[in-house]
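Appendix B, Record 12. Input sequence as logged:
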Amino acid sequence: MKTSIIVILKLYKKFVSPIFQSFFGQACVYTPNSLSCGDYAIKAVEKYGVITGLGKTALRLATCNPLTKSDNPKIIHI
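Logged structural output:
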């Protein structure tokens, strides 16, 4: 299960994320100071497993949107 989730996340990063970036530009508020949300999700699932890793990713995604965009976003570490 963990491996399949990581494969899905890597496929998202390779094929879907570039489409979003072409329409909206660099959308992740954490880059370039920290990992992108896709990289964060992969590392979180690798370190904590599927349930906890995806939960941590959901918390991070909740803060990664244009409404929370600031010069110094609070980084949620793995």
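The mean pLDDT is 83.
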